[in-house]
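Please fill in the sequence for the structure shown.

STRUCTURE ENCODING:
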């Protein structure tokens, strides 16, 4: 349910459960955590999904069994945020719920025109992952973060781009090509150079 291409300096991780809107199970989160905890890191990493939805968040059955409040989400987003390589979320469709964490933790976010963005924690009675509100607010500001997290706003790709939640809109057939093009300079650099520039942009 997780596709992984570790070819050369560019890795691609694919959520591959399209029949279930790429909803995430504990096993999928564990696999994602294992990959992003590896020490033989690439120079760039692309995170994407199969089908027309990036991820609907937690698998419903797993959420009822406790996944909605699992520390796995925060561990994964923390690992992605801490990677010294360039990380790109290539959002092939809608991004919802707990899946927000891994996308917010990436350096860049691309999305297809039909993507929707929503995080219905208020309605569902859960708290968001601990680091998500701050990461979201740093991109779009506190009021817009509250619109998504507290008012249940569901926004489209054009609005997400104007807010700064995503960085570029790409046609579905061009999404991965655009992500690879953005990764090209990093793949031609040294790991130390990549890590140094990333540290300058967002110092600890």
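FILLED IN BY: designer on duty
SEQUENCE:
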């Amino acid at each position: 349910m997780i596709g992984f291409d570790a070819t050369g300096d560019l890795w691609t991780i694919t959520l591959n459960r399209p029949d279930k809107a790429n909803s995430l199970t504990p096993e999928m989160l564990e696999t994602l955590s294992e990959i992003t905890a590896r020490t033989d890191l690439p120079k760039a990493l692309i995170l994407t999904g199969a089908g027309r939805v990036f991820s609907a968040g937690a698998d419903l059955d797993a959420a009822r069994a406790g996944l909605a409040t699992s520390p796995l989400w925060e561990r994964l987003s923390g690992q992605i945020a801490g990677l010294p390589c360039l990380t790109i979320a290539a959002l092939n469709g809608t991004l919802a719920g707990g899946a927000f964490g891994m996308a917010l933790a990436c350096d860049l976010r691309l999305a297809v025109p039909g993507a929707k963005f929503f995080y219905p924690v208020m309605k569902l009675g859960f708290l968001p992952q601990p680091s998500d509100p701050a990461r979201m607010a740093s991109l779009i500001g506190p009021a817009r973060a509250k619109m998504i997290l507290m008012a249940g706003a569901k926004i489209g790709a054009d609005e997400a781009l104007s807010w700064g939640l995503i960085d570029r809109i790409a046609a579905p057939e061009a999404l991965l090509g655009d992500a690879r093009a953005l990764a090209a300079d990093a793949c031609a650099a040294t790991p130390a150079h990549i890590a140094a520039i990333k540290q300058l942009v967002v110092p600890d």
